[in-house]
Amino acid sequence: MSGSEPRLGDLPDMVGVELRIAQILADKVYASVQQPGMASGHYTVLSLIDSNPGINQSTLARCMYLDRSSMVPILDQFENKGWIGRTRMAHDRRAHAIQLTRAGRTALKQADRKVRDLEKRIAEQLGSTKSEQLLSLIKQLQTELLVLQDG
User: Fold this and answer.
1) Which of 19, 55, 69, 98 has the most CB atoms around its CB within 10 Å?
2) SS3 sequence of 17-28
3) In a 3-state reduction of DSSP, which class is residue 37?
4) For the sheet containing 92-100, what is the strand order?
């Protein structure tokens, strides 16, 4: 089979496979517009912190559909870059309130401009109707996957 394309069987007809490929491609494209040191998903985490000053790690992880321990290295990276500050919460000394620093807001602002431009370019390529349909279908799929996960 060397030199020729491999047979894919039913893989191109599987939603999960196509979603994974789309995610890989999206990660590469979005990484190309983000500033150095900002990995896939960092924009979303910074945006959530910006929209929810004082959010705790558990809530942030839940918003991202990650387990709490997965947030630790991300937040440690952000803290090392000076993008966030963490303070102990008065009502629960084990929890930390997370907020963006000035450097974090600057990093988010720079990334936001580029990400929104890329989102606009994608929507233009798809056309507004298809772009809206795709977003709606993705949200419906997320809902169904949550049902399957909990079921």
Assistant:
1) 98
2) HHHHHHHHHHHH
3) coil
4) 55-56, 92-100, 84-89
Full domain range(s) for residue 86? 12-150
Q: What global pTM score does this model have?
A: 0.85
Whether residue 1 is contained in a domain is answered as no
Count of residues making up the chain: 151
Instruction: Flag whether 6 is in a domain.
Output: no
Count of domains in the chain?
Answer: 1
Nearest 10 degrees: CA dihedral of 150, 139, 107, 24?
Answer: 80
CATH number, domain with residue 112: 1.10.10.10
2 found inside a domain: no
Judge contact between 53 and 99, C-beta under 8 A.
yes
pLDDT at 95: 80
The residues near 110 (Cβ < 8 Å, ≥ 6 apart) are 35
> Which of 114, 49, 102 shows the shortest CA–CA distance to 75?
49
Structure tokens given for 1: 């089979």
Give residue-wise pLDDT tens across range 112-138. 999 999 999 999 999 999 999 999 999
- Residue 3 forms part of a structural domain: no
